[in-house]
Amino acid sequence: MMSKKTLSSILLALAVSICLSSLAIGQEISGSVVGTVKDSAGAVVPGATVTLTDPAKDNQVIRTVSTNEGGEFTAANVPISTYDITVEAPNFKKAVSTGVKVDVGQRRNVEIALTAGDVSETVTIEADRVSVELNTPTVATTISGDQVRELPINNRNFVQLLTLAPGVSSNLADQVYVGTTNPDGQANTIQISVNGARSSQNTFTVDGADITDRGSNLTIQAYPSVDSIGEFKVLRSLYPAESGRSGGGQVNIVTRSGGDEFHGSFFEFVRNERFNAGTYFNNQTQPRDANGKATRPPFRYNNFGLTVGGPIYFLKFGEKEPGDPYFGKIEKTYFFFSQEFRHDIRFPTLNSNVPSAGLRQGVFTVPICLQATGTTCNSVLNAGTPLSSVATINPISQQYLTNIYNKLPLPNVSQFGLSFPTRGVSKFHQEIVKVDTSFSEDWTAYYRYQNDTIPTVDANALFSQGSSLPGVSTTETNSPGRTHTFNTNYVITPNLLVDAGYTYGYGAILSSTVGTLALSNSPITPPLPFPVQRDRVPTVTGNGFSNRQGFGPYDNFSWKQNVNGAVTWIKGNHTMKFGTVYSMYRKNEN
Fold first, then answer.
1. How far is the C-alpha of 161 from the C-alpha of 232, rounded, in Å?
2. In this predicted model, what pLDDT tens digit does every residue of 418-475 receive, in sequence order?
3. Rounded CA gap, 36 and 50, in Å?
């Protein structure tokens, strides 16, 4: 019969959970271990003590549970890791199953057989490296951290690995970039369909924090470095209750954690046109260098950074005995730090139509009708005659002709065609800090901070919405993003657990015009019928020629807060979970 204390704990936990809210978003950041303990004859062993320890954290005890009358046990809400499971029971040898890997959202099944004998004796077995998920109906694909780091990925963006999952169709480009735009100025969107759903129906979370942009639903606010990912899981159908919001794929990413030993890495990936093979058309059309080889388009890509994780030490102050260490260790507390830089410089070629030298002087190569009645031309300007000799040109138009169009390069590929190289720059800087701690065997918590800064120079304006004229619609854009995530897990009893978390996220697109389209950089100051609110001169269009237009200044701000709570109640061989999420989103776009 349930005690009053246990009943009160359940009611209190449920009340806290229900008060939070009712919207489900993918919050799976842990896993569970379930199994049955039997003797050598196949009979179940009730009352056996099952202990999970983490060798990576100095064999820290993560959870201790007991088998029920059917010999079954459940250790719910354990962090993803590789565990040793120890089973002890009277009149049986101690059994240790090593290498039990628990993935995010997984219910790992472990069957353990005990051998009659003295409890002081130990039987050690190694668990299967690969397990088949038989305890949940969820259809999902898990990609481990080793796979994320070791598989060759063009541009090192984890999004490309989603295409490895069955049921995923992709319309991604060959190179998937981070940030709002790529170095060519084109928009970055995650064009992936999961089980036939729209690309805008996917949800992305990092350590339970929702990072999906709520405007387009095709972009994300944070791009965790592939070297910081512990693993991620793509849920395709039959989601658990804590996942949802939309009918597409649920992508749950879990970042790495530190351990009892220091581990780190340094890396750099370099791409350069010197390493690229010449294409057929490039070899046919490009000029030759001193060695007779066709020159290649300039390309500069550098991706470098570091990771480090381990225990946390502090400097000891005060009196010390001889031989005492100067540093003390914070027990059961670990950190992980990741920093990454990307410098990507491209030189895309833009094509436009510009006036010829004669047209800039008002001299046409064909006769022009100056005055007409119906379809009858009454006055003709002969070819080669300056327009200014027979007509007065608007002074504002004259400013545009003299100070803007006359300063553009002349056509170089046809009568009016202009082809010219530009310079697009994308720089990415990211820091991730994660701290895990265990206040006791029953109470654990972690905090993670991620900061992304992604400045770009877009030669043809943000989203390639410029005029394709040199130096006219260039924009400088930054796409910062940052998240704060806190999560805690408390074991009230081995059969009653409470999990809660809070996330604050911020993302923005801040773009300003730095070409001559900016009022502050414009060589002319045309009179306007209304006050100028932004640093921008009006768009100018010309029949048959490239318009003088751009995109920006542009500001896009997005804030979000998520509070989640869940209660897990294990009764017999049933595991019941109750939880809610409160989400607040705010988006300003100008």
1. 10
2. 988 888 888 999 999 999 999 988 999 999 999 999 999 988 888 888 888 888 888 9
3. 10
Structure tokens at 287: 């000029």
Helix, strand and coil percent figures for the chain, each rounded to 5:
10, 45, 40
Q: Which residue has the tokens 């009659």?
A: 116
Q: Is the pLDDT of residue 9 over 60?
A: no
Classify burial at 288, counting beta carbons within 10 Å of its beta carbon; exposed 0-12, middle 13-18, buried 19 or more. exposed
Using the predicted structure, report yes or no on whether residue 58 has a pLDDT greater than 60: yes
Give strand ranges (E) for 215-353.
Answer: 229-237, 250-255, 263-272, 299-315, 327-346, 349-353
Taking the C-alpha atoms of residue 268 and residue 340, their distance in angstroms, rounded to an integer, is 9
The arrangement of secondary structure in 25-126, i.e. its CATH architecture, is Sandwich (2.60)
pLDDT tens profile 459-508: 888 888 888 888 888 899 998 999 999 999 999 998 899 999 999 999 99
**Residue 462: φ, ψ to 5°:** -60, 135
pLDDT at 241 over 80: no
Residue spans of alpha helices (H) in 214-339:
280-285
pLDDT at 132: 66
Residue ranges of the chain that CATH labels 2.60.40.1120 = 25-126
Phi and psi (nearest 5°) for 389? -75, -15
Residues in a beta bridge with 28: none
Structure tokens at 142: 């898990």
Task: Output the CA–CA distances (angstroms, integers) from residue 519 to 39, 96, 412, 512, in the order listed.
Answer: 83, 73, 29, 11
